[in-house]
Structure formats: C-alpha cells, structure tokens
Amino acid sequence: MACAAGVWKLIRQPTFGVLARLSRVGKCQHTGVMTSAVTRKQFSSDPPEHISRYPIPYKKDLPYDIVELMVEVETKGGFLPNVFKVLSHRPSEFRAFFAYYNALMNKETGALTKADRELIVVATSIHNHCLYCVVSHSALHRIYSKNPTLADQVTVNYESAQLNPRERAMLDFALAICRSDTITDAHFQELEAHGFDREDAWDIAAIASFFAMSNRLAHLTDMRPNTEFYSMGRVPREKDKDKSKGEGDDKSQCKAD
Amino acid sequence: MACAAGVWKLIRQPTFGVLARLSRVGKCQHTGVMTSAVTRKQFSSDPPEHISRYPIPYKKDLPYDIVELMVEVETKGGFLPNVFKVLSHRPSEFRAFFAYYNALMNKETGALTKADRELIVVATSIHNHCLYCVVSHSALHRIYSKNPTLADQVTVNYESAQLNPRERAMLDFALAICRSDTITDAHFQELEAHGFDREDAWDIAAIASFFAMSNRLAHLTDMRPNTEFYSMGRVPREKDKDKSKGEGDDKSQCKAD
Amino acid sequence: MACAAGVWKLIRQPTFGVLARLSRVGKCQHTGVMTSAVTRKQFSSDPPEHISRYPIPYKKDLPYDIVELMVEVETKGGFLPNVFKVLSHRPSEFRAFFAYYNALMNKETGALTKADRELIVVATSIHNHCLYCVVSHSALHRIYSKNPTLADQVTVNYESAQLNPRERAMLDFALAICRSDTITDAHFQELEAHGFDREDAWDIAAIASFFAMSNRLAHLTDMRPNTEFYSMGRVPREKDKDKSKGEGDDKSQCKAD
Amino acid sequence: MACAAGVWKLIRQPTFGVLARLSRVGKCQHTGVMTSAVTRKQFSSDPPEHISRYPIPYKKDLPYDIVELMVEVETKGGFLPNVFKVLSHRPSEFRAFFAYYNALMNKETGALTKADRELIVVATSIHNHCLYCVVSHSALHRIYSKNPTLADQVTVNYESAQLNPRERAMLDFALAICRSDTITDAHFQELEAHGFDREDAWDIAAIASFFAMSNRLAHLTDMRPNTEFYSMGRVPREKDKDKSKGEGDDKSQCKAD
Amino acid sequence: MACAAGVWKLIRQPTFGVLARLSRVGKCQHTGVMTSAVTRKQFSSDPPEHISRYPIPYKKDLPYDIVELMVEVETKGGFLPNVFKVLSHRPSEFRAFFAYYNALMNKETGALTKADRELIVVATSIHNHCLYCVVSHSALHRIYSKNPTLADQVTVNYESAQLNPRERAMLDFALAICRSDTITDAHFQELEAHGFDREDAWDIAAIASFFAMSNRLAHLTDMRPNTEFYSMGRVPREKDKDKSKGEGDDKSQCKAD
Amino acid sequence: MACAAGVWKLIRQPTFGVLARLSRVGKCQHTGVMTSAVTRKQFSSDPPEHISRYPIPYKKDLPYDIVELMVEVETKGGFLPNVFKVLSHRPSEFRAFFAYYNALMNKETGALTKADRELIVVATSIHNHCLYCVVSHSALHRIYSKNPTLADQVTVNYESAQLNPRERAMLDFALAICRSDTITDAHFQELEAHGFDREDAWDIAAIASFFAMSNRLAHLTDMRPNTEFYSMGRVPREKDKDKSKGEGDDKSQCKAD
C-alpha cells in the first residue's frame, strides 16, 4: 500500500505531484495547508546514518516549501531519497536543482520514455563513478522498464548490454555529451537514423548534462543512496505475479516490505 | 555610460537586478507592466549570425518573464550574452538554469570573490573545451580582477599560471570536481590550509559542477560567444586611466566602444 | 582411468569437490541425493538463450570428466553457471582454467576470506567492464559476506565504497595488478601495514591476474551471466531471519524461489 | 600413481613433452641422451642472481612432477627459463599455469603458426610493459620466424612494424583483447577478411588473455628474463649459413655459444 | 612607427631580416657594423621580471652574433620576445634553435601562409599546455590573419573553431604529429583532398615537431610571454580604420603604444 | 669559403668531427685512409630498400657540405645511419637538425655520460613509439655503456629496468619533459638529490625535447633504422674478449660482420 505509492509514482505524476510543484521554485505565495498528520511524520526519523559529508538540516530549520515537498515525497514514496536531505543544506540551490530535475525528468513530450531517461542517468553516472545516482536511478529504471537486469548491464558495460539499436544510439550520444565531446552534425544524423529528432537530442543531452552536475555534487557531499534503492524492482511482488493486470507502468513491481 | 553599466553590473546587483528576479522561476502571478519603450528595444536585432545549432525564438514567442529579463540585461550590459538567447529555446530549463546560476555566481556570502568564481569557471571550462564559457568568463574575470592576463594563463595551463597558493588550492579542488574525482577528507584539509572552510568548498564545487552542465549544453547547441567577450577587459579605458577613483570593482574597465 | 580425469580430477579434490561446494551457494534446499532423474535433467535443457558467441557443446559430445563436473555443480548449486558451458567449447582449456580457478579461489590458507576473494574479482572485473564476472562474483560476494550492498558499491566506485582500511589496501593492490602497474616494494609495505604478508600479496595478485584473463575470455565469447546471479543474496531468506544459526558461510542466504 | 602426476602429467603428454620440445628451441645440438651428469647439473646452480621477488624453492623441496619437467626442459633447451623457477614457488598454480600454456601455445591445429603465437605475446606484453615476456618471447619469435628484427619492431610500435596485412589484423585483434575492449561482430569480420575463422579468433584471444595474466604475475614477482634471451636468434649460426636445409623450424637458428 | 615595424615584421622579411641571418649560424666572420645608437638601446632594460627559471645573461656576456640579432629584433619589433633572452643562456643551442625556426617559419615556398603556420603552433602548443607559445603565437596569428578571434577559438577547442575544411585538415594532421601518432598513407590522402601535397605535409609536420621541442623547453625554463603578446592584434588601430589600404598584411594592426 | 659551410661546419668542429666520431661506433676496424674508391662508394648505393616515405636525394644533387659530412660519417662509421639520408631531403632543416644534435649529444661538459644521453633518448623515444630512435640509440647505448641488456629493459619498462637511483631520477625527469608535464621546483630538487645540477637538468630536458621533435619527424617520414643497429653491441667481439685494452669507449664492441 505504502508500496503502491512508490517514490517513482510521485515523480510520474507532475499534475498533482509534489515534484511538479517544486518547479514553482521561488513562488511568491502559497496557501497549502499541511495537515498535522503529515507534519508529524518526519523524514528526520532515520538513525544518524552517514548520508552526507555536510550537515542535514532539521526540518524545523528548513523553509516551508522545502519541508512540504519532503513530507509529500516521503509519504507517497515510502521513504525520502537522500538527495532531498543532502541538498536541503542549501535551500536556494535545492530549489533550482529540483526545478531543473523536474523540467528534464518529468517532461511529458518527446520520444524518451521514463525508462529511457533513467537509462541515460545510469549510463552517464557510472562513467562518473557516482554511487548515489547509479544505485538510485538503476532502481528507477528497473521499476519503469520492468526489466530487472538491464540497468546492471549498463552499469558494467553499456557496450555489451542487451540494448536495442535505438537505445544504443541514445546512450552513445549521452556518453558523448557526458565526456564533453565536441558535438557535430554526425551525432545528430546518427540519432535521426534511430528516430530521435533534434528536440529529443536536446532532451538526451540535457539529462546527461544535468547529471554531470548531479554526479559531482554527490562526490562533493559523499551522498549515500538509501538502502531501499539497492534491491528495489529486482523481485516481482507476489500480488503482481497473481494478477498481471498492471494498472500503471510504475506500480506493478515493488520492493518487498 | 551604457558601457559603464556592463553586463557584469547586472550580475553584481541581485537586490534589484533582473537575474535575481530570475529565481522567481515558476512564479504564480506577476503584475509587471512592460513599457512599450522596453518592448521596442529588441535583442533580436543582431544579424543572422550563427550562435546556436537550435533556433533562437522570436521575442514575441517567449514568455513575458524571460523577455523582461533579456531586455533588462541587454539594456544595462550593452549587449545580451548569447547564452540567454540560446537557452530561451527551452523556457522552463532557461528559468531553472539562471536561477541556479544566480544562486551560485551572485551569492553574497563566503570567501570567494567574484573574480575567484570566474576563475573557477575558466579553469574547469577549458578542461571541457567549452568555447562559450572560456571566452565569456575570461572576459568577466578580467573585468572583476582587473588582471588582463591571468585568465589567459589559466586557459593554457593553470599549473603554470601566476596564481597565489590560495588560488592554486581553489583551482586544484575545482578541477578534482570537474574530473569527477572521488572527493576525500584530504581535499578539504588542503582547502582549509588555504583559508577555505567547508561552505567555501561547497561553493567551489557547486560552481565547477554547474559549469560541468553548462559546458555540455554549450557543446550540444554549439553556442558561440559574443564577439565583445574576446577583447573585453584587455585594455584600460581612457577615462579610467585619467581618474582612477573606481566607484565599483566592476565598472572601471570596459570594452572599447 | 580415474587417472583419465586429469586436471579435472584435481579440481574435485579436497574431498568431494570444492568447486561443487562453491556452487551450492544460493541454493535453498537440496537432498544431497543425486537421482538419475536429476542426472537426466541436463544443463543443456535451457532455451536457446544467448549465453556465448561460440557454440555450447551437447553434453553427449563432452569428455566424461567435464560432464561429471557440470552435473555435480548443477545438482548441488541449483543451476550451472554459464562459464562452465561456455568454456566447455575447449575442453583442454576448460580443464586448465578450472584447475587454476580452484587453486586460487578455494585455497584454504592465508589471510583472504572467501568474501575478500570475491571482492577482488568484482573490483578488477569492473575495471575491465566484464559483465559476466561482475554480476556473478557480486552475487558470490553478497552470499559470502552477507553484505547485500558492498559489491554494488565497489562496482560503481571502490574508492567511495564503505570499505575498511584493510579492504581498501587489498583492492588498491588488486587494482595496481589489474592495471599492469609496475609493482614496487612500496606496494608490499602498504599491504603489510594492513596485515597482508607476501603470500597474501601473491594471492591477491594471482586472483587479479587470473581474472584479467577471465574477463578477456568473457569479452571474446560475449559470455552472459545466468539471470539467477543478478538478484542472488540481495534479500535474506525467511528461514535465516528466524534462526540465525548459519551452519556454513555459504549456505545462510539464498535467492528467493 | 601415474595419476599422481595430476595436471602436470597432462603437460608432458603428447608423448615425451610438448613443453620440453618447445624449450629445445635455440639449442644448437643435443644428443637426446640424458646423462646422469646432466641430471646432477641442477637448475638451482645459478648464482644468487635476482630473478624473482619471491624465494625460488630448492629442487629437493619441489614435487617430483615439477622437478621432472624442469630437468627435461633444461636438458633439452640448454637453460631453464626463469618462469619455471619463479612460479614453482606455488606448485598447484605452476601446474595449472603450464597446462594452460601448453594448451594454447603448443596447440597443433588452426591457422596460427608458432611465430604468430609468439608475435601475439610480444605485442600484448609490451602493451603491459612486461619485461620477462617481451624479452623471452621476442627471442622465441626470432627463432621460429627466422626474422631477427620483427619482434623488436613490434616491441616499439606494431603499427609501424613491417607486418603483412594478415599479421596486422591478427595483432589488431590481440590488442583489442589485451585492452579488454568490448568485442563485436566487426572484429570477427575483420579477422575473416584475413583468413582467420572463429576458432582462430579464439586462439588469438586466448593467448592474449593468458598473457594478460602472465604479464601481471611477472610484475608481481619482478620476474627477470634469462640473459640468454636477449641475444638469442639475432645472429645466424655459421652452420645454418652453410647449409640451409633446416630440419625443423625450431632448430635452425641458435644463440651463439 | 616603431609600432609599424612589429616583431612579426621582422620575422616576415627574411631577405634583410635578422632571423634570416640567424641561419648563418656558425659563420666564421661577419662585417656588420653595429651603430652606436643600436648598441645603446638595450634589451636588458626590463625590470627584474620573472621570465625564466634560468639566468638571463647580460648582454656584455653574450656572443656578438647573438647580441646583434637581439638588438635588431628589439629595434624593429618594439620589444624583444622573451624566448630570445631565455635561450641565450645556451648560445650554441640558441643558434641551432633559431636557425631551425627560421627554416620552418620563414620558408617562402609551399601552400602554407604565415597565418597557417602560426595556427599550427597555437593548436599544437595548447595540446602541450605551453603558455609562452600559445600566447605569443596567438598574437602572431591575429596579426597575420587579421582575424582577432580564431586563435582564441583554437586555443579552447580547435574542433569547434570556425575553421574552413582546409584549415581543419591541416590541424588534424598537425595534431596527429603532435600526439606522436603513427602516420599512415591515409593521413596524406586526407591532406591531398584539401590541397596539401607531400611537401606541405612535411612543412606542417616539421612545424608541429619543432614546437613539440619548443613547448618542452618552455616548460623546462618556465618561460613567460611578454605582456605585449596578450593583447596584440586584438583591436584595430585607428589609422587602419580610417584608411584601409593595407600596404602589407602585417602592418595593419598593432599593439597600442 | 670553408666559412660557406655554415651550420654544418659547426658540426664538424671540435676538430675533425664529433658526429663523425660518433658514427665510428660499431665499426670493427678502419684504416683512417679515405681512398678515392671509398669516396666513390656512395651512400646511395643501397638497394631501393624502404627507409623513408620521402625521396632520398642523389648525392650529386645535395649541397657540398652535406655530402662531405655523409661521406665522412659513412667512411668512419662503416655505414651511414638512415637519418642522414632521410633528412637530406631538406638541406636547411638538415643543417639545423644536426647542429642542434651536435650541441646536445656531443656536449663535453656536465654530469651526463654518453651512455646517459643515449638512455634518455631510448626512454623518451619508446614513449613516443619511434622505431628509428629506439633501435638506433639502443645500439649506441649498448656500445657506450658496454651493457648489452639495459636499453632493452628500458624499452620495455624503464620503471622495472635495472637502473641505479641516479639513472632512475634522470629518466623520471626526462619522461616528465617528454610528456610535456609542467615542471616545478620539486623536479629540480629530486634531480639535485641525485647529483644533477640545474645545467644537467637543462641537458636532460633539452635532449628529451630534441627527440620529441626527432621522433615526430621519424613518424612523418616513416624512417627505418639500418639493419646494423638491431644487433650492434649485443655480442662482444672476439678481439675484445682476448685483450680488454679498449682504446676508446666507442670502439670496444662491434657488430659481427
């Protein structure tokens, strides 16, 4: 049940999701009333596990809009991904970071599926040896794609992973951006040969670029992934095995609880 | 005079600057009335020079808040840096980008001077072979530092540039982040030995990380620097030679008109 | 005649089979009785899934000693790791390969635990981007160490993994060997400072060297890991949770069935 | 009992010893009679020259099968290559190593000549900066190929060496394996265009892989080549100049004595 | 006026230039009378600015032919490039260096323009991170080409610089030489496709090779560029703007005096 | 008139020719008498063996000073190293090249022995994969040092070669220059700790720099070493074995004829 909410669920639904509202960064006013129930469920209940080299602010010391987002994410997803806690050390950067994240990862248009986006993150983040991003976005890829092994394959070697040619072309381009290669018309022609137009190219490149930043922030802070991410999406739920009706692409698998 | 305002002037003054307002990304409503005079001064008057691989939107097709920012930047700085035009192709990303930029580059606290921030951008952007960022931020460094040669030295080889030990430690750390090295306590100790505390370390790293993203977006779009940037800040203005009173550190030099 | 078993015979020694025992890992229950039915259940019954670029011999075409080993490994371990099938394409090389493997990985003396050995394999195999070895030996590490996340951490970045200093020194040396660095006295001194003597150094280096070979054979054959390896050892068995008596270090965890 | 010889027995097969025959290379003449005097001339009679970082066992402390091999190799070849002494520190690994070596380097089938095999070893071992393997296998290449300069050329730069296209394709593939590149169909097509089928590809790759291991063991032990190897095969014997009948490809040239 | 002579002027005119005479290295006698006026204008008048890690000889301690050259260069060019001072520490090497420089950079035949030669120097020197050569030869390129931005573009990233295909092919080859790549027929074919014959290829390669040496000598000596080089050729002279008659390609622009 | 020999004259100085003496190396005996017959025996008499990608001029077409040098070198040394033939394609560059070579390699002062200089050439030329320079200067090192194996060791891996600490420090610095590293005070301190002063540092660096150029010219021309170089100095001459009087350090060993 909490399981059904899935962190990813939240991400998928920008219309009434919190992340979508995140993009109202700097918003002038808001009227949202936070129920006391939600308020009491704190994201800071975790043990003093090391998740960052920098201090994690107490909820009471954070701006209201950031707390509101965190509570909603945690409530719906079952746990709060550590990146929220770690980056809340710098509220103004937190807002810009998640606004950007939302603009790229929850974009509704273009040829990239949610699984595609996560695969780009995995392929580029392993290039940068970013523990947080590889582990957390591999989990998200397993959830979105229902493929429990492809992210691991891409982590080890995307060149030998079981990708279709379209995915391969997508990752080739993402890696060119990741390595800061000089991009030429040949790159775009290769993408077009696999059905990606110029706007899709921008999407791929912008995700690779954004995670070029994220990976480095994770190195700075020694950001550690939540334990949940390691096994999430690896084993099908019993319920899903019984009835494979799958109401939504992000609900059919779930971490065992 | 318009010259005196300088692009950088704008950046320096977040209190009533446009860039500061930029961080109101996603703002719910606004009441600003755009005068017709401002409207008529268009940033799109430049010839069809190649500045991006992607189309540059007509002003009339851009969201009001973006136009407002562009007009103000151009009016005050004398010209509109091409990054504004190029990224306006994606308004929501534009907003997040400049909100982030503002949070990092116009931050008022900490040990980093404006010249320091620009030097970090130059040193990391040359590592990524980013023409736009090296040329434009070398110009800004010359302006802020009043040192007409250091940015060029860092562009060629920061290890042999005439840096003081503090600047050298700052760039060593910025480059470690730029290369996506695993960051350890030893990095922080080295910084502390040169007067940078943990918050300064975050500032250095966040700038290096943000430009890891920016450099790659510039490669994607083949973003070209405005011609003005190449020579800006290289030769002292006559006026400045006569009276060296210098009302502000960012006004004393200017591109020749 | 028993003599005819040759190299292979050697592998099965230390009484009823070290390698076989190794492969019992992850198996939920077994009766120890090898029925003829089991014998008839052939390892070649798998669907024509792609596990190698080279043909997999039919059991009937393989030398007796190789078949004998395979049946025993499969019976005891629950599945036959694909490396056995793939390398059986060359029986004489198969025998030398597993004799070597056995001498290194099942060595009973020295400071290295079974988990240590697997961690060396993971750390060096990811350097070589070897899908088969990273995935299968990460599984073995999870089983032996009962640590469900460390192998994933090492896969992404052993420099930021939660290693103790002894493990870090061990992997630093393994990676020096893996990169074919020139080894100097300083390497041995560093190892000694963490409790590894010269014989342990040989063990570490020999494992790293052997997998330098294995990784490349996997690239040659496009060897694919059995699906079982991806999730093995990630989630504790119910039985283990109830009673943590642990009769053997390689039997206490198991893949969910 | 004969069974007791284990792996090692295997190596000596194809009747009186492939490895031993291999080591006859470079020997000017021999009578085939193993006098007791020769037997008494021990391989451990060499001065305490540094040939390994690890202790070299006394003959009396070595297993019988290993001594037997060493005596035969030394008797027939004129000297005992140091790799035998160095690896005898670990008898079980010694046996597996030479069983593997024998399976690859003395394989009687396929398109690779003995000189081809040695050239693969030289080209990959210089990539790994392995002194022992480059020097000793360059000597073997000179002997087998009767070409006194090609191995030196490959040592410096195989891309500019005087190779025919077939040899070039062979080394290109060997180096791809050596670098742990991801192997694709294109590699096999390139080989096929030069007359190498899939089994030849395996041979090339297995040799490159085996020496990926050997090179690293040589780094571990600081294994030093016998002085004889440096000049072996560089100058033709007088006898060979007079009558170029060449009874065998490995006997026609010899180090000057 | 002195300005009009420009250091580059000197270089351009080997017929009566000093550099051309330089190639008479080792000449047994000469009759040149040095006017007292020239003698009095000393190149050693600069402040004790750091320009080399090695001592700069006093003029009185230098061989006559070297002094003569320096005085002439300084008189005509307005300032003496520091490379003359720094290398005069070793007179015999000085003579060979400038004889070689003259043979390559002032060669009158072939397809390379003076601007082409300078561009090769810039592109290869930035690869070697040579401050002196990048800064000084970027200045010369601006002067010769009248293009105030191309050298800066090449410094950051020649792959994204606004080069025509001919220039791109020229720099591709220069960089292949610079990296010490093995040169093949394919390199020459690519050059021929852009109008460069084999002698032009030699010219390109010889310049790249000579600066491979120069760059390293600059690293040895920590050679610093004269301040004049940084801004030279960036801003058009007033006089040139008024009358664009341009009597010579190297006189139309000049450093401000 | 003799004066007309220019640069080249310089090379022949220190009385009857340092370079010529250098090339006497490896020659078994000579009478010192230059008969007209010898004069007529032209260096261009060699078969159309491939030694350069560029045409080798006929002697009759070469300037007198170049022919004079070649004849002397060939007469005294027994054969003419191919570099003389290959570079004579460009007489003015030929003169500067050998003037520079002479200034560096035949310098009479400082701490570097002739063998040291050759070792620097070998160590840096293998870094650049230059066949001509590695093979020819390995030969010269064997001659000068009377050590028949050290150059081969350095070719494979100078880090594991049997160097004394002084030689190791010398090559470490040479390689730093070779790689175009930024040189710092630490480099000089390391050298001083092994007895090299600043002038020795210049010597080491200048040789490494000069061969950075030479190696690249060899790549350009596909310059091939004379066959004599491969075996020169490997086997002691009979005469030398008998009487070890050694009149000169460059005459005591010789290629077998």
TrEMBL record, chains A, B, C, D, E, F:
The record's annotation in InterPro entries points to:
AhpD-like, AhpD_core, CMD-like, Uncharacterised_peroxidase-rel
Q: Which NCBIfam families does the annotation name?
A: ahpD_dom, peroxid_rel
List GO molecular-function terms, semicolon-separated: peroxiredoxin activity
Q: Where is the Carboxymuconolactone decarboxylase-like domain?
A: 94-139
Quote the SUPFAM superfamilies the UniProt record gives: AhpD-like
Q: Where in the sequence does UniProt note compositional bias of the Basic and acidic residues kind?
A: 235-257
Protein name, per record = Carboxymuconolactone decarboxylase-like domain-containing protein
Which residues does the annotated region (Disordered) include?
231-257
